[in-house]
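User: Hi! I'm a student and our assignment asks us to look at how structure tokens line up with a sequence. Could you show me two examples?

Assistant: Happy to help. In each example below, the sequence comes first and the structure tokens follow. Example one:
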Amino acid sequence: MSYHTRDERLNTGWPRDEELLQRVPLGEQIKELVIDTIMSGELQPGERVVAKTLAARLGVSQAPVREAIRDLILLGFLENVPYKGTSVRSFTTKELRDVYAVRSALESLAARLAATRLTAQNVLALQDILDRMIQAARDHDVGQMVRQDNEFHETIIRISDNDLLCQVWQTVQFGTWTIVTARISSYDLEELARRHEALLDALKTRDPQTAMVAMQRHIEELGQWIEQS
């Protein structure tokens, strides 16, 4: 078997690396599109998602749309109710309480681990995300703010360097985006964004206990606000 360097591939007609990366399956593209509409608030909790309608709107066949819908159900963005069809997932008060209790436990652990591994580069990355989150809040761009919020927390999870923790967090976190996007717009978005400043300051102490307590307070307070809204 022969192998080619990148330059050889370019000279022999092989696809460029950039072209390979752009070959995203249609179902995956549709999935990302639906996630964007949920996070922007265009699709609200409880709103139906019909494969035939979505396929017609996008000008594609129903097969990749059904594939995307199946994946989104598994991720927690959508839910399928017998005799009612598929819709953007809604949460009961108990489900919200359960989700934020689990998030508090997971992310407190992540913060404790991340505090001991935090580098100067990590701090700069988190500050950059926070700056973008605050700007999105000032622009009242709820969807963008939620994306930056999620990226901030996911970055801390990655810094913790615990693969199992990351996997479990992803399962819990995805579905909550729907309810967060729908409910936080009634709050002062910049105030919500700036709550992450205290969290970053706690991480910068590199003290595991300080970081853990700050994250626990951060998550539990947000859970209480969303539950009461």
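Example two works the same way, sequence first and then tokens:
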Amino acid sequence: MRMPLIAGNWKMNTTVEEAAALIDSLVKPLDEIINVEKLVCPPFTSLKAVSESLKASSIKVGAQNMHYDDKGAYTGEVSPLMIKDMCNYVIIGHSERRQYFNDDLYINYKVKAAIKHGIIPILCIGEKPEENQAGKTIEVLEKQLVQAFAEIEDIGDLVIAYEPIWAIGTGKSASGEQANNTIGAIRKKINDLYDNQVASDIRILYGGSANADNIAEFAAQNEIDGALVGGASLKPEQFISMVKQTSTLYNNKK
């Protein structure tokens, strides 16, 4: 079975000191859970400190974004070479990056660069509220997948995060059944683009107002392999509870 992944995206929150305190509160309880992969994605300013703190831990580290070139005249950007020794993962194409920073144009380049440098991409895809209401969810997601995977023969351990944009930071979330059906359609498209083995192996997360109160509804679904967590990942008791609940449900599935 695919091992579930609970990934915390801290977004533009926490100073270095606050990041260290948050990590301190997570390490012991999360290290006791071995059947769920745990991941935290702090801001760039805290990556080194967090990665150093977690060297002896089972908690993995990810970056929230990266540029696709190794170096160059891109003021303010961070390259794969700058993060690869500190990160296991990198989030690519988060809806906030697509919305505010025009990242739609660069997703494919970033996925290629991450794979090239041995960083596992967490590719975010999702539909806008008006697309959802117009019944275009699957059409939009399939288009995003085709664009992201253009000219990529082997996606390796890449993870997909389905994040309906209407559910991010709104307090609304898809139902477990809705998310499961949509993620099943995503898996079918991966089968079309690659093959059944790749589609069966790839982990697909749900993201969008996921928290300790609703994680069980998602983790119990057969197609859903965990969650990309936003605000709740900044609250240790919430994040720990989400991992614990996912662990219990994973054991029940086996």
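Here is something you could point out in your write-up. The chain has a mean pLDDT of 96.
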